[in-house]
Amino acid sequence: AQSVSQHNHHVILSEAASLELGCNYSYGGTVNLFWYVQYPGQHLQLLLKYFSGDPLVKGIKGFEAEFIKSKFSFNLRKPSVQWSDTAEYFCAGYMDTGRRALTFGSGTRLQVQP
Amino acid sequence: DARVTQTPRHKVTEMGQEVTMRCQPILGHNTVFWYRQTMMQGLELLAYFRNRAPLDDSGMPKDRFSAEMPDATLATLKIQPSEPRDSAVYFCASGLVIGGRGNTIYFGEGSWLTVV
Question: What band does A54 get if pLDDT is binned at 50, 70 and 90?
């Protein structure tokens, strides 16, 4: 079955540290990939997305992600985190078969310490 | 700014009561999703519709949950009777899916349900 997995459940960083959150998907066909962010008490907001083309995609708030097809990965990165980046981050994938609905990873809780 | 609108934002109800959550998708979107978020289970897909037709409700407990889309501007999720384990945040999301290809899904602000 198609799935999306995030292996880092809780990450704690100091301000200005670099961030990389892992995301892997299991599906061999066409996949659209997304990163969403959920700030405490709020709804999910789109950070960035990949459909095709340049595998390095840039999103809002200085985030970027790289699609590596050979590794089935779509890791999220930010060179220097801020306290305001404290949130939960969800990777999600839309596969063109099966349920054909957005499948979410379990989320990574990022805590940035000032 | 187009957005997905959900009501109620917060609901506290007693066990056994009926709860109805409503969602107005973004105009022009043909796909509507209902997700449930809990600490234990994370984000779970309950059901979704395309062009108002239910495509998949396998994530939904059938005995007490029902989802409908009476028109293109309204989707509903009903729980009857509600139980404490239904306490969660229920998100509605909408998107435009063409030819089987996905597109950005936009989320509403959620309905925070507490069943006591």
Answer: very high
